[in-house]
C-alpha cells in the first residue's frame, strides 16, 4: 500500500505532463495516450486512469516484460510515453542508442533491496557467497552500493558509477554475478542472494518487507544517481499542433 500511495500522490504532475503532450484538449472523445511501463498490474494505475479520465484523457497502459523494451517502443512511436526508469538509466539509453528521449515528469524512487531464499540475515550469508545483481550499468552501480552498505562488499576508489571491476575481491565477503534485471528474482533459488528491483518483486511473489537490507532513497548516494528531477527539454513542444512530437519523446522517470 505504501508504494501505491506514493504513486497516487505522483498522479497529479504526471497527468499534467500527459495533458501537455496531448495538447490539453478534452473533446467529446478526448485524447488517448499510450504509456509503457513494466508494472501495468499495479493498482495505482487505476488512480492514474481515473484522474486522466476526469481530464478527458484515455490512458492505454502497455506492459513490457523487461527494461530493454519501453524506450525502444517509445522511440519507434509504438507508445506515446513511458514510466519505468530513473534519469541515469534514460541517459545511458540515449547515449548508447544515439537517441534523444526527453523526460517530461517525475514520480518517485523506491528502495532497492537484497533478498534471499536461503538466508534469514546478512550474517548468515557465507564468505564467498554469490549475489545476483542487475547487469545494466545504472542499476548495477546502485546494487553495488547496496551491497557496500550492507557490509558485504568493498569498493576501490570513489567511482560514482562502480562496476564489478571496482570490487576489492580480497576485502569483500561476497562475489557478484550480473544478470538481466528481470532474471534476478528468478535466480534466487541458485544463489545466496539477489538485488531485485521493485518492478520484479510483485510478479515474483516476493514480499518487499522480506529484504535483508535496503538502501535509503533519500541518501546522498542514491540522490546523486537516481532521484527523478522535474525537467522539460527547452524545445519540448506542448502545443496541440506538436502533440505527436511530444508523445514520441515523452518519458516519465522513477526507480529502475
UniProtKB/TrEMBL annotation:
Subcellular localization(s) per the UniProt record: Membrane
UniProt keyword list: Lipoprotein, Membrane, Palmitate, Signal
Biased composition (Basic and acidic residues): 224-244
Biased composition (Basic residues): 245-256
Pfam families: Lipoprotein_9
Principal location listed in the UniProt entry: membrane
InterPro entries in UniProt: Lipoprotein_NlpA (IPR004872)
Coiled coil: none
The family this protein is said to belong to: Belongs to the NlpA lipoprotein family.
Region (Disordered): 207-256
Highest taxon above the source species: Bacteria
Signal peptide bounds: 1-22
GO cellular component: membrane
Protein name: D-methionine-binding lipoprotein
Mode of membrane association: Lipid-anchor
Amino acid at each position: 500500500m505504501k508504494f501505491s500511495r506514493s504513486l497516487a500522490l505522483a498522479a497529479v504532475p504526471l497527468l499534467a505532463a500527459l495533458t501537455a503532450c496531448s495538447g490539453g484538449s478534452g473533446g467529446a472523445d478526448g485524447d488517448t495516450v499510450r504509456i509503457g511501463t513494466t508494472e501495468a498490474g499495479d493498482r495505482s494505475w487505476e488512480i492514474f486512469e481515473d484522474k486522466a479520465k476526469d481530464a478527458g484523457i484515455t490512458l492505454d497502459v502497455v506492459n513490457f516484460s523487461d527494461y530493454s523494451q519501453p524506450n525502444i517502443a517509445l522511440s519507434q512511436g509504438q507508445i506515446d510515453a513511458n514510466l519505468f526508469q530513473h534519469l541515469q538509466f534514460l541517459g545511458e539509453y540515449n547515449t548508447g542508442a544515439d537517441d534523444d528521449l526527453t523526460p517530461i515528469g517525475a514520480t518517485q524512487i523506491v528502495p532497492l533491496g537484497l533478498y534471499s531464499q536461503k538466508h534469514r540475515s546478512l550474517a548468515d550469508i557465507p564468505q564467498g557467497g554469490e549475489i545476483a545483481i542487475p547487469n545494466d550499468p545504472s542499476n548495477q552501480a546502485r546494487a553495488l552500493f547496496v551491497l557496500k552498505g550492507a557490509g558485504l562488499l568493498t569498493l576501490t576508489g570513489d567511482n560514482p558509477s562502480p562496476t564489478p571491476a571496482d570490487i576489492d575481491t580480497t576485502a569483500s565477503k561476497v562475489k557478484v554475478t550480473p544478470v538481466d534485471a528481470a532474471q534476478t528474482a528468478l535466480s534466487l533459488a541458485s544463489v545466496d542472494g539477489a538485488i531485485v528491483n521493485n518492478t520484479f518483486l510483485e510478479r515474483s511473489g516476493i514480499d518487499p518487507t522480506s529484504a535483508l537490507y535496503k538502501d535509503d532513497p533519500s541518501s546522498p548516494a542514491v540522490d546523486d544517481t537516481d532521484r527523478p528531477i522535474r525537467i522539460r527539454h527547452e524545445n519540448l513542444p506542448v502545443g496541440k499542433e506538436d502533440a505527436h512530437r511530444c508523445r514520441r519523446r515523452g518519458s516519465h522517470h522513477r526507480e529502475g
